[in-house]
Amino acid sequence: MGRLPPERPGQPGGKRDRNRRKRLAQLREAGLRLFLEHGVERVTIDDIAKEAGTAKGNFYRYFEDKPDLVAGIVQPADEALRNAFDRCEAALEEAYDEATLFAAYQTLAIGMLPLAVGYPDVVRLYLQESRAPSAGARAPIRALADHIRERAVYLTRFAVDQGLLSIRDPRISALAVVGAVEQLTWSFLSGELDAPPDEIARTLISLVLSGIRS
């Protein structure tokens, strides 16, 4: 089924615009609930429309297909993570010793904290689907996962080149940290780890830097 012509949004803040935003939110929330329960690939557009209490045709007023919906769901996480990596890179450019290196990585951690607090279900979906093959509707999630790993490796290599870290293969350290962050985040969201998020972040950074010094 082809996408219907986009609905005229009307004046920002007007009734038409509010209704459009409401329907977008309903479809995203319905998709997110079903994806978490059944997995992205098993859920159909019919399922999403039914869960959102709307006709299937209305889905195509707002989304081209299921991957487009998934991309819309993970967009807040995507934007927040990219901004956090950018701020960390800028801080690393100014770093000159262990204290400023710690502060640069803390910038990255602080940038990630609002995700676990403000978008916990989006983060759960990412953790649930990010290691699956990059195919079908999972593609936007896998693209985000690949970006995170690439930026983590890049930042570690940058720190090595600047003489801030001494690591033979930056990929090993970077990917180990990404894995640790994902496991800690899952434990925090599932209630297995009840420590404050900022304490988790500081502890992880200290452990990583201590390991590198050793």
Description:
With 214 residues, the protein is mostly helical. It folds into 2 domains: 15-64, Homeodomain-like (Arc Repressor Mutant, subunit A, Orthogonal Bundle), CATH 1.10.10; 67-213, Tetracycline Repressor, domain 2. Helix content is 74%, strand content 0%. The chain has 9 helices and no strands. Helix 5 (98-118) packs across helix 6 and helix 5 runs antiparallel to helix 9 (197-213). The longest helix has 29 residues, at 66-94. It is elongated, with a radius of gyration of 20 Å. It starts with 14 loop residues before the first helix and ends with a helix. The model is unreliable at 1-5 (pLDDT under 50).
Provide a brief overview of the structure.
The protein has 214 residues and is an all-alpha fold. It has helices at residues 15-38, 45-52, 56-62, 66-94, 98-118, 120-129, 139-161, 170-189, 197-213. It is elongated, with a radius of gyration of 20 Å.
Low-confidence stretches: 1-5
Mean pLDDT: 88
Pattern of helices and strands: HHHHHHHHH
Radius of gyration: 20 Å
The number of helices is 9
* Name of the CATH superfamily of the largest domain: Tetracycline Repressor, domain 2
Total number of distinct structural domains? 2
Shape: elongated
CATH topology of the largest domain: Tetracycline Repressor, domain 2
SS elements, strand count: 0
Q: Structural class, from helix and strand content?
A: mainly alpha
CATH domain class of the largest domain: Mainly Alpha
CATH architecture assignment name of the largest domain: Orthogonal Bundle
Q: How far is the first residue's CA from the last residue's CA?
A: 59 Å
**Strand share of the residues?**
under 5%
Q: How can the largest sheet be summarized?
A: none
Helix percentage range: over 70%
